[in-house]
Amino acid sequence: MNRQFFTTVLIVFGIPTAYALVARVFFGIETWDNLFDVMSTSFLFCLPTIVGTLTVYLSSYERAQQAAYQFFAPWIPVMIFCVITIAFAIEGWACWIMILPIFLLAASLGGFLGGYLKRRQHRRNLKITFLVFLPFLLAPIESFIGSFPGVYKARTSIEINAPPEVIWDNVTRVKDIPEEEDTGYLNRFLGFPRPVKAELNFEGVNAYREAVFTNGLVFHETVTQYIDNEKMVFAIQAFPHEIPSTTLDEHVVIGGEYFDVLTGTYELEILDRDKYILHLYSTFEINTTFNFYAGWWAKWIMKDIQDNILRIQKSRSESVIHRQ
User: Topology of domain 150-323, per CATH?
Assistant: First the structure.
């Protein structure tokens, strides 16, 4: 009985997991000239759907007809796949946090499809075979169509009770940020680099500002518009070759193939005497075939970085007034 049980478990969950691992290795081969890419709809959406379909289809008829089983059972091979790829450094923790909701939902949808195919008797094996090869058929088509780069904006602001010159001093030059002053919850959870300092060589157009983060991440910023105590716009560059490979996952590296930060803007808006709103905007580019999802995550991450910086600037600006 135990042997039969373990054999069943191995078939139901082992085969979909093995399929996912084989597909990940296949899509990770760099010599395909981008015909197969992990950062593609074919991999991120089709693969977990088929994993879910296989899980339910390989199960007993009785289990395959239960809605709860169709929904949740496919999560098991997905989670096993997740653990294996993290354990062997095939994927990073941050990447999985971002793609896991897609994988789980798509796997559940695949589970319902598996239940449907289980009920169908006519030519069902042919349909399953077609589904197994579907990502490998769609990926070259997706590669031929290409991605559609999109530019997005993250807007943040904070109210500060301090004179404009005090606020602006903390905008142009951010002194060393100790870890206890860092309140960026999302980026800390994802293990992304945290801000350390920012230095401006002079106040004016064409000035150079260097925003330094931990783990070797540096934003090179060139001021393109400048109004003292009012507005500063700067172009941003991050050079992937400067960033150590251990700093960011290859799929989310800044300045890389899929994500880049373009510009930043500080604006100081007056509300009342010594009461201002400091705005911080950034524009960034996403270059994937699923920008609708990647853009949402990128905007959330950028807002977390910006909110963190603004809170530091508020605290430091207001502390100057309290000391006087």
Answer: Alpha-D-Glucose-1,6-Bisphosphate; Chain A, domain 4 (3.30.530)
Question: How far are the Cα atoms of 43, 148, 183, 194, 260 from residue 237, in angstroms, in the given order?
Answer: 30, 21, 24, 17, 8
Domain boundaries, the chain: 2-145, 150-323
pLDDT value of position 130: 84
Cα 234–chain centre separation:
24
- The whole model's pTM is what? 0.84
The pLDDT of residue 80 is: 97
**Residue 255 phi/psi, 5° resolution?**
85, 5
Cα gap 302→156, rounded to integer Å:
9
Residues facing 266 on adjacent strands = 232, 280
Which residue numbers in the chain have pLDDT < 70? 1, 32-34, 121-126, 240-256, 321-324
Helix (H, G, I), strand (E, B) or coil at 278: strand
What does DSSP assign to residue 205? T
If one counts every other C-beta atom within 10 angstroms of the C-beta of residue 145, the result is: 9
Q: Determine the Cα–Cα distance for residues 240 and 139; give it in Å rounded to an integer.
A: 26
Q: What is the pLDDT of residue 66?
A: 95
Say what the pLDDT of residue 294 is: 87
SS3 assignment for 233-271: EEEEECCHHHCCCCCCCCCCCECCCCEEEEEEEEEEEEE
Chain Cα centroid distance, residue 293: 9
Could you list the beta-strand ranges (E) of 75-214: 150-160, 195-200, 208-213
Quick one: which of 254, 250, 285 has its CA closest to 30? 250
* Tokens found for residue 221: 């910023």
